[in-house]
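Shipment paperwork, digital attachment
Item: protein structure file
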Amino acid sequence: MKADIKLPPIFEGNGPISAEDWARRRLEITNILREQIYGYSPAAPAEIRSEIISEAPAAANKAIERTVKISFDTPGGEFSFPINLTVPKNGIKNPLFVLLTFRPDVPDKYYPQEEIVDRGYACARIYYKDVTSDDGDMENGIAGMYGAKDRADNAWGKISMWAFAASRVMDYVLTLDEIDKGRIFVIGHSRLGKTALWTAAQDERFAMGISNDSGCSGASLSRMNRFDRNAENNSIIYERFPYWFCKNYAKYSNNEDDMPFDQHFLVAAIAPRAVAVGSAVEDLWACPEGEFESAREAGKIFERLGLDGLSYPHDGEMPKPYTHICDGMVSYHIRNGSHFLSRTDWLAYMDFADKRFGK
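Attachment content:
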């Protein structure tokens, strides 16, 4: 890491951390992130309702694909959105990925459905625009249902809205006998990688959060992005996408050193549960070095909790392409290529899930 970068400490000192002390600090960290970057979300609904809309064979008839409508009450009335759920036809309780997607017509090139099924994983997919639009319209979808047009400076932005929906999917899949309740993971790419980390940081029911190429305001350290002319930084991202965040985040544009946090807080907030971060060599906009150093810093918290963190002994050295570090509770891999949720990434995440949680 650049010597002139000074990160705020996740937890003061260097010694062991008790579970009780970490629980208190986790709450402080998530509230810092709510107040300063992602905004506070409303309380979870008292109940959710579900309706199976359609069901058909999938993955060469090795799985069942269901379209399910999830509904719940909001201050603006009932809100609903669909998910696509694929479950292997294997007669056992399956681990599950909750995948936030950019496209409604999946499986597609970003989602190797048959390979995921063959590895024994179920998947629940949310098309993010079914929750709310990816623009400044705060009357669209769930944003309008909760009156976000007149939101306070620390109220939720759209990343938190998509995360809120992912937690409602968790509410639903916990009712299914065919899903292993202790092995449910949330995964996303790019802005939805930011969302996946924020979902897992807030919702402890997820056993793992997975960030693929999430970059600035996701896994990558903002203080490192600032020094990299090829990387997105706080000023650029807030100017282009202010609606992803709470309004308070504006004050850290070109002002990263005043942040009482950095993105290693977000990665560490998932501890003691597992977290996986993936980068791509050509994805300079996402700053792979910043993503790696964030995972390394967060890994130190796992170690202080008596767990293995990011098990990479080469201090100050960036991993080579196709390195996959996955012996601890923090996984990091980097591959050749560009900004994409690829088959290589999926294999790395499934390998890590196999290793941490068994088949």
